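ok posting inputs for the flavin-adenine dinucleotide job
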Amino acid sequence: MIPAAFEYHRPADMAGVIALLEEHGDDARVMAGGHSLIPMMKLRMAEIPHLIDLQDVAGLKGIAVAEGRVTLGAMVTQHELIQHQGLANTAPILREAALVIADPQVRYMGTVGGNVANGDPGNDMPGLMQCLDAEFTLVGPDGQRTVAARDFYEAAYMTEREDEEVLTAISFAAPSGGYAYEKQKRKIGDYATAAAAVILQKDGGTCAAASIAMTNLSDVPVWSDAAGEALTGTSVDAAAVSAAVQAVLDDIDPVEDNRGPVAFKRHVAGIILTRAIQRAWGRA
Amino acid sequence: MNDMTPDRDDRSANLKGMGCSRKRVEDVRFTQGKGNYVDDVKLPGMLHGDFVRSPYAHARIKSINTEAAMALDGVVAVLTAEDLAPLSLHWMPTLAGDKQMVLADGKVLFQGQEVAFVVARDRYVAADAVELVEVDYEELPVLVDPFEALQSDVVLREDLEPGADGAHGPRKHHNHIFLWEAGDEEATNQVLDEAEVVTEETMYYHRTHPCPLETCGSVASMDKVNGKLTLWGTFQAPHVVRTVASLLSGIEEHNIRVISPDIGGGFGNKVGVYPGYVCSIVASIVTGKPVKWIEDRMENLMSTAFARDYWMTGRISATKEGKITGLHCHVTADHGAFDACADPTKYPAGFMNICTGSYDIPVAYLGVDGVYTNKAPGGVSYRCSFRVTEAVYFIERMIEVLAIELNMDAAELRRINFIKKEQFPYTAALGWEYDSGDYHTAWDKALKTVEYDALRREQAERVEAFKRGETRKLMGIGLSFFTEIVGAGPVKNCDILGMGMFDSCEIRIHPTGSAIARLGTISQGQGHATTFAQILASETGIPADSITIEEGDTDTAPYGLGTYGSRSTPVAGAATALAGRKIRAKAQMIAAYLLEVHDDDVEFDVDRFVVKGAPERFKTMKDIAYAAYNQAIPGVEPGLEAVSYYDPPNMTYPFGAYVCVMDIDVDTGVPEIRRFYALDDCGTRINPMIIEGQVHGGLTEALAVALGQEIAYDDLGNVKTGTLMDFFLPTAWETPNYETDHTVTPSPHHPIGAKGVGESPHVGGVPCFSNAVQDAFRAFGLRHTQMPHDHWRIWKTANDLGLHG
Ligand SMILES: Cc1cc2nc3c(=O)[nH]c(=O)nc-3n(C[C@H](O)[C@H](O)[C@H](O)COP(=O)(O)OP(=O)(O)OC[C@H]3O[C@@H](n4cnc5c(N)ncnc54)[C@H](O)[C@@H]3O)c2cc1C
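and the output
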């Protein structure tokens, strides 16, 4: 539980970060809250000779809710997501999801940017951001670009982000309709056995649009277009819900671990999704 | 009576003696972060040790190359078995009569086994150097299943002479350790064969780990000038460690000082002697510098002593009316690579033969086969007396299975089979003499408090609602009634490495009337400094707040066998009371002299001696203590001190009645504890608040074990649950509300009638939680399903019963 030796860098601006990333290439890594990275370093599963702390970098903090858009600085902590009143009003699903991440200690340190950039299929924010159709802003030596959350994840710990790029912000249109973030875990501080993020628009008695994403059921978060479509245009009755569940089951690919065998995870995924849909529909 | 004399009740309250909820004196330092644990010990020039551990569960070591590690700046030494062999320290004896490698000698037998010990300037260099030690392994076939191990040609322990007896008699196979038996098998089989009703069940009590918050560690400091070795460490039995260290190292015992500082929980994990302790000692001798070794969490879970891992097959017989007539139990006990169980020498399966439980069972048999496998050694009593948790789980499951077989209510089945109050002292079929009990009263009180009949009605309605499709939640009612056997133990049959399991207390009363008492035990969170002072306060009349309790330094404390198996109050607590009585006897002589009356004409009254019939004439203990030091009293030695070594005449047998009400989500496998009621009878109650705390802690560890805590291995012997992400350690979040209750049935042979309570809630709690889960599915045909009941296993039970449609 003791990491290998590393150099600690603490640049004050993004130019300093990029310069260090360019200088050390593969040997450098940025650190946000450190609550995924440092455990890996202590286990010596990650050896990082140059650690670049983002704490002092200007412009990465802050939550902005304006003109129907929400923008989160990459260094906003998970705790801040829970505390922020404007966010609770505009996008309450964030608060609901953040509350089931880890425990308060982790949330005081862990950031939303680190959570989505990490690429761990167990992280809760990536699926949620796919559900919200969020965009990630990346800044690198060649300037700035945005990538949709739904296009960002390639495989476990593999993302669209280039090694020399830093994720600076996350933004999405303020969601409307009913929402739910439902997660089954073994205990406090555990990653999901299965989790579902659901947002539904209701028009009269009909579901006008639906967005559904699942967490920790594949090596990447799973946004299921088909599941959303299965609900759209229906009254979200039992048949529609089970069609959505079936669509998700076709898209996920869980693996056995200490949380249980594949059959169990698939079953629970269906149950959790059903409950999330029902709760979201009740709120729509 | 003089107007200035406070009344008796006030004087009594002022003592804070037995029966009062005195606040824990330890908590001031613990809650302020001022505890002093082994890792807080920092000595000038101290070096740090770290282990190279085996990634394989079974492999031959072809070579170890330490050159690169030695070349790293700051590395002082890298020890391997070759370095320890000339000192004969590459192996060490275990508490169970076996021997264990200190550092891998030619092969490794479990994942995480100690292969080399790196000693370096600081903890960071040591960790870097560990990575640089090159070990060439040749993998060997791995045996993780004890049944397979008993059939396999693969020889795990090549060091043992084939065919030779082990420490506990003949070995049937090269991977067999012992067969330990109790009771009469022939008579038992005959009863079972002829019985009206017989039922059989096999249950696996999975491997788990005590997982104290503080891991194991030691600091050894060999002073080459005066030839003295000082050893600080996480020792639940510091005096035994001193003796073992002396026998192993050849250093005379008076030249070794062992100190157990504050200990952050033990639960059995810190009873054994670990390679880390030995290596820190050797490294200090070799380098002449103090050497510290502190385990990390993963090392603790992987390599220092596990608990349980018992495969138990039971057969129980009864009349059609439910009167139990016989019990047969066979255990296949997975001991891992070395037999390092921490049990009294003559009991290689601990007190598993308490497995007839709280029931009057006329005839019984127990056979335990110990087996070697490629898993970590250990087999400690995790928050229980020796193997008592296994025994109680076994019988409390057998009772449930029998109730199913008889189609009877499990509470009623218990009631008609309890040992009756008038049968105590009761000699059980497997040999133990239960000291006292009143099971029916406790059981009736428990069932009445929880409104048992109403719960059963609600459960039946729930089953119907479930069948109608109105709910997906089932309701389980978990029952358990346990009898513990604690306070080991009588020297005539209990010893550890030849040391009789007595315990001790030494008291010194200071001239101004305050006192220090030292004991042979060592608190790891039990609150000894609080409760032992209360015993002494009641016995001597000196306020508990004026008594310091000290334990754990072998240079100052009297010899004792330490703290585990709920033995501190039954054994050292008795020594404390008796030492207090010696003080009182001398104080009586002094008081009589001061009051100028005959010894027999004064009597003890709370905090003083008064002249019989003339209570206005008295001497307080404070007066008496002063006189003991400043007056020449004819025929009485100066000073006021006493020592008592207590050899208990018997064990004590605490008992209790627990009920758990649980709701289970059939679709997700998530259990929710709605209610938990725990009635404990630990005899005389010294500090009700501490008892309540102990009950809460023990129940929470029971919840952990029953609902998910395990050390699991894959087929290659890799530990799958090596971090707290996967190893379930409940937090406040997972912990339900507990309702506690009690009855009081004092132990007739203990000086103050106390029985010990720290482990009862764990022993009774595990079957209670497990029974609740299993009871929820009884209406759907479940007989038995294995722990731990984590989500997926509960889900699988429901799935196997066809409850998912
Ligand atoms: C006990 C425990 C339980 C947990 N449980 C959960 C859980 O239930 N759900 C959950 O979602 N998470 C969980 N986590 C993870 C936690 O939320 C982390 O904080 C989060 O995954 C990473 O955020 P961080 O700020 O700590 O990032 P770091 O650990 O600092 O970084 C993580 C990775 O992302 C990279 N990175 C960080 N920020 C940026 C950036 N701005 N641009 C580019 N790359 C970046 C780093 O280089 C690193 O590779 C748990 C963690 C612990 C320790």
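notes: Chain B has three domains: 8-35+503-646, 38-140+215-263+270-303, 391-488+651-800. The longest strand of chain B covers residues 306-318.
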